[in-house]
């Protein structure tokens, strides 16, 4: 009963200040939304990987593999079974259904361990059509759409399948891949009978690959998700700034109410409980709103994330979001946690407040001298720590540690720096209004500093990530020009056609560059080995980073190979190192080339060195060097002469365009999150200004009374806000550049395996500045309209004696 | 500054309906006059003062200040009038918290274009705040703050000083001292002084008293 | 690995391959289905050994079915079963994974307290499971029935039988003390009044020595074993739902094979009386009468585990009792199979198989 009375008294505050209420709920909801949105995206992607891993790689089980990625004779599987081992064969490879390339995974459903079931063995019809000719492809709905018209084989759609892969019976896989009697790996089931002969004796040529806790995809994409999480957290923190400052204000403004209630005999604990209940209520309402907005954000982001993951890692993620109950719970939990974090200081202050504390609210947000000094010290410590991390730590987490310390340190430093700047400007000025302008800006700083810190974070993140992406793009486009040197790329449909094509082309073009590759496993990593002919195209264009003298001669002779940058960095290779490409193939690393957008390692060898060891390698694809004006002719005669479908003839420009599109799509998500974060920061500034405007009257009224028009006052208010925005923006630029450097030189190297040169894009800053300016004007607009439209009587109340 | 108020009327819309605060005020003040405006709470004294200060506009009537009707002025005209001709002292001192004492004292003078450091220093000395020039309002006692407020008003040498219970927040001794100072300084600058007070003792010290009752001069 | 799910699938698979769609309950394990494309047993075809010890891929189903009544030196009774089933999705054989042949192995050991069961399933064509006639070998994974006879001799005269599962295993050496015995009309075994039939011969005269490994102990055992070889494409009529099958070693040295196929009416019975020197006397349909004596709750169903078996024309009248009521084969196609003893006009031991419950 008492509690209700108390609660009613406390809650009446919000009724009178709906804007504050709105700020708390909106801030909390946005913080929750961005956080849980990003979490949902991550969870969805991880679920996809888990699905893919369970379906494709059977990662929870050990496998027998051939050390150099060679195929395993089927007889080995039979030998193991006949020795009592519970094992199951897998044959997989790439197969082209028309234009769609699928990863075809041939399995044997009768021996396949239950953990990895792709085929429901209890459904006999399903099983039967799976193993009986002509056979069935089990594919995801998306993949089914893609290949429906490209194959006569029966399709069975399964939601559990990742895109771009198909389960088939191992017999069908043999036929499709033309690898009769071959296996790529042997799955070892968990339960085995006792007393088995060791695998080492039965299959001495094979290696046991233990189940890994993480799938390859999870490992590869970890950096990306860490990245998203970091962004989500940044947005969450920015959102909490709003909540923190609003709750602080609401507590200060209710001090008289608290005092009155306590004088009337409400215990401190009852008061605290009421306030906690109030906060909890906010958290629930805002949490619910946040989860819903988060869901919308996530469904907005997911296609982009899926595109990114596809583009960067070849990881397939379903583009649709499923609502998971744990996600609701975590959304509420984070909302409650956020509320508590934001209000703990105010609650503690309340607990320490004596009954007869001053009933007048203290100047809100006024930070004490010691507080400010502590902030500066903490900032220095954090910045020092980030420097130390750059110098002495490595790893992706350390990279994000650097970012975290840097951002937090810089934002803690911001109020002191702004205060210094304003003091300096005030000193410079002499006119009464100008002096007042600067002094008053400084006066407002404590109340705005949290919002400005949030703004700094958002702007710096924008500058940093923008610089990173643009630098990457510039480098990538230049790299494409080098890499895609051939004017036309053509793919034959089968080997005889390829032979005819080669003969025909010999007289028609300047040079024919075969594109041949084999899958291999080098140093335990799945890789591709490409074979190249000795051609000026490579000598002149190939994007080499580090080289040995006569690099191309050495490659052509078969003595040396080139490795891509990510493999080079990951394995810490050096030029001149020996590399085991296969059991009977060693070569020297003679150069390193950049290979953006490829998650895997890659090796380039002389074509003879490759084909002598892999005589069966497919030679269907060719790059053609022709004069630019002959491209169109050649194209049409190719399709006339050979009847090649348009998809099999691609010109350089189209390929570049496609690559560029993939690239741009790849960073859409980052851009979207940037905008969201900036939006939340703008909202933080807006709500702070709104709150401040409520307490601005006593500060403005005397100036008005002394003869400054309301219009001028309003103009000064705009100017003041703009100056603070601009000062923050100016501070964000160097911070953003440092951020970009860390992203390019530390995080990218760890995450992707390549290091990029940094480019500066002042034009983008101008654009960001304009966006920020627009946000500033919007954020100041409403508070200002209130001021400009203020009736004199409102201002006069300030002078009223009966207060 | 000569002031002539003619048939001044002002009413406010309130929750209970229309409230006529001033109902036809006629009042004349000569240059250098000091007049106390007394009356019950709600009799309209503060409203009258605000109208004369150009902070608000009357519903009807004329406010002739130095020969022109300021009620006819627009917003910026009235702002200019306040800036250059009026000095205000309130019960709440309304110093600018972000400026130190010296800047507060100089503030209005600068706005009025009559910045005179010598005069401001002299004022500060005479008001007993000469040692506090670099302090900020929140670091001052109530009495000190009111002295600074008076200093700020007089530093601009306004032709008209309007004061609303200037000593209402001060204890009696402090109040007397502050009032003495204000009166003598106002006399010294030749300013006309209109002061709202409900203290008869204070009113007695001025040249003239005008008593308001229910929006009319009694 | 879920043995169960595979096995169920195996069973239903046979049905679907026969009927082209999923018509349920075409008799037990789909054995009562049409035989389109497959060869059908014909009367008067003599067996050709050793070729007929091997697989007959043109027929839909086939089995190598061995049961052994065993005894430890202390007199404790045991039973052991080793079965290899072949089931064809289509007639004929192809190399590699495209083989239409599927193989299924069942192994069991029965004690008076326990009944251990294991199952294996495999595709044909790659060598994971199969049968070679000479030198005889039948296997699935590491389970094996290996002939030890020299070429030219009867390939089934000496066998080594092994099976190992997670809980149990055995290794038995079998040597025949009598000849192979054709069942029915010189190996043409009629299964219904409508003429469904199979090729069927037995080797009921094995003397066994060997060892069982059980979770708690290893036991040396000796005893008798019985091998049934049968292949067909449509062994059951459509209305036949299951059977009781007896293989009995009489203490007199004689053997008796008898079965009853249940249908909606009286059922169809058939039996062969085998003299101690291995001469078969096929008995006319209806000569064998069986009546349940006691039922027990097994795997959630009531199953008659004790039977009165009579052949009045031979003055044969015995009552069987199982070594273990719960000899339930919890395989994909579940059935009851276990060692029994019998007393009455004559006593002895044998095996009982009951399906379709």
Q: What report would you give on this structure?
A:
- The complex is a heterotrimer of chains A (803), B (218) and C (357).
- Chain A is α+β, with helices and mostly antiparallel strands and 803 residues long.
- Chain A folds into 4 domains: 1-41 and 219-362, no CATH class; 60-211, no CATH class; 368-468 and 653-803, no CATH class; 488-625, no CATH class.
- Helices cover 62% and strands 13% of the residues of chain A.
- Chain A is elongated.
- Chain A starts with a helix and ends in a 6-residue tail after the last helix.
- Chain B is an alpha/beta fold.
- Chain B has one domain: P-loop containing nucleotide triphosphate hydrolases (Rossmann fold, 3-Layer(aba) Sandwich), CATH 3.40.50.300.
- Chain C is mainly beta and 357 residues long.
- The relative contact order of chain C is 0.16.
- Chain A binds chain C through residues 74-75, 77-78, 81-84, 86, 108, 110-111, 113-114, 121-125, 127-128, 131-133, 169-171, 174, 180-181, 189, 191, 193-195, and chain C through 1-2, 5-6, 8-9, 11-13, 15-17, 21-22, 89-90, 96-98, 100, 102, 121-123, 126-128, 139, 141-142, 164-166, 169.
Enumerate the spans of chain B where pLDDT stays under 50 for 5 or more consecutive residues: none
Beta-strand content of chain C: over 45%
- Strand order of the main beta sheet of chain B, please? 6-7-8-3-9-10
Q: What is the N-to-C order of secondary-structure elements of chain B (H for helix, E for strand)?
A: EEEHEEHEHHHEHEHEE
N-C termini distance of chain B: 24 Å
Which of globular, elongated, flat, extended, rod-shaped describes the shape of chain B? globular
> What is the highest CATH level, the class of chain B?
Alpha Beta
CATH topology of chain B: Rossmann fold
Number of strands of chain C: 23
Radius of gyration of chain B: 17 Å
Structural class of the helix and strand makeup of chain C?
A: mainly beta
* CATH H-tier superfamily of chain C: AttH-like domain
Q: In one word, what is the shape of chain C? A: globular
Strand content of chain B: 25-35%
């Amino acid at each position: 009963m008492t509690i209700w009375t108390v609660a009613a008294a406390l809650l009446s505050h919000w009724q009178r200040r709906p804007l504050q209420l709105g700020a708390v709920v909106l801030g909390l909801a946005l913080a929750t939304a961005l956080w849980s949105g990003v979490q949902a995206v991550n969870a969805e992607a991880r679920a996809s990987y888990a699905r893919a891993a369970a379906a494709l790689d059977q990662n929870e089980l050990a496998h027998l593999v051939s050390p150099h990625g060679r195929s395993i004779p089927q007889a080995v599987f039979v030998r193991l079974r006949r020795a009592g081992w519970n094992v199951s064969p897998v044959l997989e490879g790439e197969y082209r259904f028309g234009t769609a390339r699928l990863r075809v995974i041939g399995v044997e459903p009768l021996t396949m361990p239950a953990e990895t079931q792709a085929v429901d063995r209890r459904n006999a019809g399903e099983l039967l059509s799976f193993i009986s000719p002509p056979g069935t492809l089990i594919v995801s709905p998306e993949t089914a759409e893609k290949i429906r018209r490209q194959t006569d084989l029966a399709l069975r759609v399964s939601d559990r399948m990742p895109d771009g892969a198909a389960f088939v019976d191992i017999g069908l896989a043999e036929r499709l891949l033309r690898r009769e009697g071959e296996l790529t790996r042997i799955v070892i089931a968990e339960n085995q009978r006792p007393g088995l002969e060791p695998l080492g004796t039965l299959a001495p040529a094979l290696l046991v690959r233990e189940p890994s806790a993480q799938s390859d995809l999870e490992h590869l994409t970890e950096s990306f998700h860490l990245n998203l999480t970091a962004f989500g957290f940044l947005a969450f923190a920015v959102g909490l700034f709003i909540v923190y400052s609003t709750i602080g204000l609401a507590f200060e403004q209710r001090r008289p109410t608290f005092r009155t209630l306590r004088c009337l005999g409400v215990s401190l604990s009852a008061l605290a409980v009421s306030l906690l209940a109030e906060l909890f209520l906010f958290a629930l309402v805002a949490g619910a709103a946040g989860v819903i907005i988060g869901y919308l954000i996530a469904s907005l982001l997911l296609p982009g994330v899926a595109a990114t993951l596809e583009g960067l890692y070849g990881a397939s993620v379903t583009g649709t979001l499923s609502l998971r109950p744990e996600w609701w719970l975590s959304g509420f939990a984070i909302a409650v946690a956020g509320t508590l974090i934001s209000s703990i200081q105010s609650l503690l202050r309340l607990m320490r407040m004596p009954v007869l504390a001053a009933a007048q609210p203290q100047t809100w947000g006024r930070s004490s001298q010691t507080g400010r000094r502590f902030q500066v010290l903490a900032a220095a410590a954090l910045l020092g720590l980030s420097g130390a991390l750059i110098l002495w730590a490595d790893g992706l987490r350390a990279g994000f540690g650097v970012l975290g310390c840097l951002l937090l340190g810089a934002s803690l430093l911001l109020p002191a720096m702004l205060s210094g700047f304003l003091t300096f400007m005030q000193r410079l000025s002499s006119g009464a209004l100008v002096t007042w302008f600067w002094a008053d800006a400084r006066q407002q700083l404590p109340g705005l500093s949290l919002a400005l810190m949030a703004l700094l974070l958002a702007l710096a993140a924008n500058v940093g990530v923008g610089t990173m992406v643009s630098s990457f793009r510039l480098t990538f486009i230049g790299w494409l020009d080098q890499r895609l040197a051939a004017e036309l790329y053509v793919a034959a449909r089968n080997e005889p056609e390829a032979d005819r094509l080669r003969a025909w082309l010999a007289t028609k073009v300047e040079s024919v560059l075969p594109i041949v590759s084999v899958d291999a496993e080098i140093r335990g990593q799945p890789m591709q080995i490409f074979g190249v002919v000795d051609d000026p195209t490579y000598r002149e264009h190939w994007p080499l980073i580090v080289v040995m003298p006569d690099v191309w001669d050495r490659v052509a002779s078969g003595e040396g190979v080139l490795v891509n940058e990510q493999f080079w960095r990951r394995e810490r290779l050096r030029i001149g190192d020996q590399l085991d490409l296969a059991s009977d193939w060693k070569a020297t690393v003679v150069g390193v080339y950049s290979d953006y957008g490829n998650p895997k390692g890659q090796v380039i060898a002389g074509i003879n060195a490759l084909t002598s060891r892999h005589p069966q390698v497919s030679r269907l694809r060719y790059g053609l060097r022709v004069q630019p004006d002959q491209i169109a002719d050649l194209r049409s005669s190719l399709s006339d002469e050979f009847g090649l479908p348009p998809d099999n003839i691609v010109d350089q420009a189209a390929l570049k365009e496609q690559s560029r599109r993939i690239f741009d799509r790849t960073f859409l998500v980052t851009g979207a999150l940037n905008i969201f974060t900036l939006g939340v920061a703008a909202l933080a500034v807006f709500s702070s200004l709104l709150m401040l405007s409520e307490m601005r009257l006593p500060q403005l009224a005397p100036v008005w009374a002394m003869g400054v028009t309301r219009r001028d006052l309003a103009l000064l208010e705009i100017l003041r806000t703009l100056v603070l925005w601009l000062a923050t923006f100016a501070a964000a630029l160097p911070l953003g550049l440092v951020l970009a450097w860390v992203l390019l030189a530390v995080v990218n190297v760890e995450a992707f395996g390549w290091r990029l040169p940094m480019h500066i894009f002042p034009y983008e800053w101008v654009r960001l500045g304009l966006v920020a300016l627009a946000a500033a004007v919007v954020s100041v607009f409403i508070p200002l309209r209130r001021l400009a439209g203020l009736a004199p009587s409102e201002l006069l109340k300030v002078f009223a004696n009966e207060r | 500054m000569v002031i002539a108020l003619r048939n001044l009327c002002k009413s406010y819309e309130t929750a209970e309906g229309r409230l006529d605060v001033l109902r036809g005020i006629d009042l004349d003040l000569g240059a250098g006059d000091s007049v106390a405006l007394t009356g019950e709470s709600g009799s309209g004294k503060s409203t009258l003062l605000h109208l004369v200060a150009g902070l608000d506009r009357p519903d009807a009537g004329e406010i002739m200040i130095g020969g022109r009707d300021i009620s006819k002025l627009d917003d910026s005209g009235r702002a200019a009038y306040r800036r250059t001709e009026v000095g205000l002292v309130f019960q709440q001192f309304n110093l600018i918290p972000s400026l130190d004492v010296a800047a507060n004292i100089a503030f209005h003078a600068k706005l009025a274009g009559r910045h005179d450091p010598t005069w401001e220093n002299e004022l500060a000395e005479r008001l007993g705040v000469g040692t506090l020039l670099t302090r900020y309002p929140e670091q001052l006692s109530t009495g000190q703050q009111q002295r600074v407020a008076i200093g700020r008003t007089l530093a601009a040498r306004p032709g008209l000083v309007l004061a609303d219970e200037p000593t209402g927040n001060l204890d009696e001794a402090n109040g007397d001292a502050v009032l003495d100072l204000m009166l003598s300084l106002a006399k010294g600058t030749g300013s006309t002084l209109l002061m709202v007070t409900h203290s008869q003792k204070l009113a007695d010290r001025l040249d003239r008293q005008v008593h308001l009752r229910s929006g009319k001069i009694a | 690995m879920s043995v169960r799910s595979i096995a169920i699938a195996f069973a239903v698979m046979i049905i679907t391959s026969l009927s082209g769609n999923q018509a349920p309950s075409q008799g037990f394990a789909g054995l009562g289905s049409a035989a389109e494309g497959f060869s059908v047993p014909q009367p008067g075809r003599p067996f050709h050994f050793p070729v007929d010890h091997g697989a007959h891929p043109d027929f839909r189903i086939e089995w190598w079915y061995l049961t052994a009544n065993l005894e430890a030196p202390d007199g404790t009774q045991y039973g052991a079963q080793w079965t290899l089933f072949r089931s064809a999705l289509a007639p004929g054989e192809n190399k590699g994974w495209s083989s239409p042949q599927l193989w299924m192995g069942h192994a069991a050991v029965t004690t008076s307290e326990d009944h251990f069961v294991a199952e294996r399933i495999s595709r044909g064509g790659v060598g994971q499971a199969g049968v070679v006639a000479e030198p005889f070998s039948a296997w699935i994974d590491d389970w094996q029935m290996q002939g030890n006879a020299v070429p030219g001799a009867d390939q089934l005269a000496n066998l080594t039988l092994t099976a190992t599962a997670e809980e149990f295993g055995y290794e038995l050496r079998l040597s025949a003390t009598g000849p192979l015995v054709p069942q029915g009309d010189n190996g043409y075994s009629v299964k219904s009044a409508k003429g469904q039939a199979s090729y069927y011969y037995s080797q009921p005269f094995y003397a066994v020595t060997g060892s069982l490994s059980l979770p708690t102990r290893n036991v040396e055992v000796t005893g008798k074993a019985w091998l049934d070889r049968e292949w067909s494409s449509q062994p059951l009529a459509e209305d036949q739902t299951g059977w009781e099958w007896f293989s009995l070693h009489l203490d007199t040295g004689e053997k008796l094979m008898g079965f009853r196929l249940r249908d909606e009416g009286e059922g169809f019975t058939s039996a062969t009386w085998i003299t101690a020197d291995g001469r078969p006397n096929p008995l006319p349909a209806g000569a064998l009468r069986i009546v349940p004596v006691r039922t027990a709750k097994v795997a959630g169903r009531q199953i008659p585990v004790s039977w009165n078996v009579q052949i009045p024309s031979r003055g044969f009248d015995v009552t069987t009792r199982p070594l273990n009521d719960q000899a339930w084969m919890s395989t994909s196609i579940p059935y009851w199979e276990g060692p029994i003893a019998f007393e009455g006009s004559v006593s002895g031991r044998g095996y009982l198989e009951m399906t379709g419950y």
